[in-house]
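How a chain folds remains the central question behind the approach discussed here. In the encoding step, the backbone of a single protein was reduced to a row of integers, each denoting a local shape. We regard such an encoding as a compact summary of how the chain folds. The sequence in question and its structure tokens are set out directly beneath this paragraph:

___
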Amino acid sequence: MIKKGIRRQIVLHYFLVVFIALLLVEVIFLIAIRTYYYDTVYNHVSNHIRLSNEFYQPFRVTSSDNVNQLSEMVRHFELYNTELQILNTSGQVLTTSAGFDLEQTIKTSDVTQALAGDTSRWVGKQPGTGQIVMAVSQSIQNGFDQTYILRYVTSLDLINDRLLKLTLFAVSIGAAVLAIVLAFSIGLANSIVKPINNITTVSTQMAKGKFNVRIKGDYKYELGELSSTLNYMAQEIVRSNQVKDDFISSISHELRTPLTSIKGWSETLDSGGYDPEETKIGMQIIAKETDRLIGLVEELLDFSKLQQNEMKLVKGIVNLRELLQEIILNLWAKAEKKGVTIKLESEEKPIIYGDANRLKQVFLNIVDNAVKFSHENGVINLYFTMEEKFVTVTVRDYGIGISEEHLRRVKDRFFQVNPLNGGTGLGLAITQQLVELHGGTMEMESELGHGTSVIVKLPLPEGKIPVAGGLENGEEGMPGPTV
């Protein structure tokens, strides 16, 4: 007995479908065979009656001698291996080809319909013997306008024996087919259930935290996709855990360094006895490290808000050219130390509708990365490309570049190409999500040793744009800033 489960359901469904189909086919087949045999007998007798009647009519007995008439009719109409009964219109048997005087009245349906002028048949048990017979009856006219009923009675035992053998043969074939289907359905069910059981076992281990296990087996179709997906999920969880551990280690180091400096200088200044110049240097270091801590904490808070969809944008009119010029000024000192030149090459003045502070955060992070990874005395190019509904801002540097392997993951959260450079690994992840909140996209193209291009595409506002002193290219304004 197959226990409850998918295996039993598959086997039962296949078995029932094939069983019902076979049953219908065999019933229809046996009914058709039975009808064919019975119709063959009926047609044979009917044709005999028609041909005998055509031959007999010109030589009808005109004598009033009833006995001679009946004998003549039996001689002309009798059929081999069939009993011929001649009945009067009341259904009484007058004579038979078997020579027995039955002295009975027959009221079966074939006799009744024969009186109405039709040739009809009746199948049933012969009174007295209980034998299954077919009776075919038809009325004919004899001399002196006398009407008789010719009733042929033939046994169906031989035909029924053949039908029984055909039935047993069909049932045997059906049983063999069902046995094959049962074996096939069990094999099919096992081919589905065994992989599912394997996947379930491995999934249970994964649920217990054993992400080093993998589903083994070359499964096809949906089961193969499911096993591949679960293996990929486990791989990603392991990678995510590793990234999380690396992030905790990195952020702990990032927090410990400024805190150590702050604590050290605080204790030093608290002890007193230092000249004003050293005190000033100490306070500058404390202020610098404090700003660094604030930046780290704000980055973590921004990421948390983005993950929980709690980031709110305060939208307004933003002049991208002015925004980028401000960013260049903010990073001028850092770029100057490496001899890096930042150039804004385009003359366009694209106006968009967005959150100026968040967009500044986006481009500040991108340009800052470009400065960080540029070679000394390098160049960073910034330029716009205007389209019908979008403006594209490209930041291109010619620095160290990013390998193809790292380029696919560089926008992942907590990922750092070089952990020794410091940071949380959240900068580009936050930047991309902020761009997407503005309805834009961010793409990166890079070649190791040849630099990197960051391409930010932002939507242009529909309609006219309000600017200082009036409207930009029209008279209709846009709604005010929204949150």
